[in-house]
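Support request, please re-run this one:
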Amino acid sequence: QVQLVESGGGLVQPGGSLRLSCAASGRFFSINGMGWYRQAPGKQRDLVATITSGGITDYADSVRGRFTISRDNAKNTVYLQMNSLKPEDTAVYYCKADGVRFYSWSTIDHEYWGQGTQVIVST
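Re-run finished. Output below.
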């Protein structure tokens, strides 16, 4: 009922920048929480950044000061601006949505995930 499609990944040199986008589609009333997670080869999936519908943000210590999360509620899209990229940022980045409402009076107890987009930081 909620589809999340990430885009914007690719290959970038250390110190470079990328902007990821995640567009939510489907028949829903609202989405409270949206965020970005990443998973490097052989490692667990970790939180990168989250943002509420009211604009409250949280960042992993490893990306704070370099990455910026934002969202456009009218477009149902969340963004991740990644600056000063490091090789250790290489991972598949996943978009997540929670606190989804299909009606104004009902919040679904389910998390939705996108398919992921690859980010490679290398010379």
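The CA atoms of residues 94 and 116 lie 4 Å apart. The chain has a mean pLDDT of 96.
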